[in-house]
Amino acid sequence: MTTLLALLTLVLATTGCEPDIPPEILGTWTAHEVAPSGTVWSLAYTLGEKRYSVSGDPPTDEGGLFAVDQQDCRRYHLVFTERVANGELAPDINVWVELSRDGTRMTWEDHVYRRTEAKDGPSAPPAHGP
Length: 130
Prior knowledge:
The protein has a single domain, classed as Lipocalin (Beta Barrel), CATH 2.40.128. An eight-stranded antiparallel beta barrel has the order 1-2-3-4-5-7-8-9. The chain has one helix at about 1-15; strands at about 25-35, 40-45, 50-55, 60-70, 75-85, 90, 95-100, 105-110, 110-120. By secondary structure, the protein is mostly beta strands. It contains one helix and nine strands, in the order αβββββββββ. The protein is globular, with a radius of gyration of 18 Å.
């Protein structure tokens, strides 16, 4: 009985340290689009295990914390908090995203982000065009 209790304690102690963020969404995701006015814009989200950052054109600089609080198959509910956008505090964002079956595209509302770098390094060539 003592051995069983020790084994159960060891299992519980080692399984509680898994990352909160599903590894399949970690990395850098980039979107390039043309607005109806003809203006071209791009955003690159880098999703780490607890923090995220955003850069883009027109120039933008954003970062903060993020988490996944729900998952439904290939859909993830992302929550962005403690956001600082272009040097100013910004409101929290929560949004559902959907990951493609092959893991190379993430749809966020009406925008498609392509994986340009996985957590462990490049996984696909950078996407060009819209």
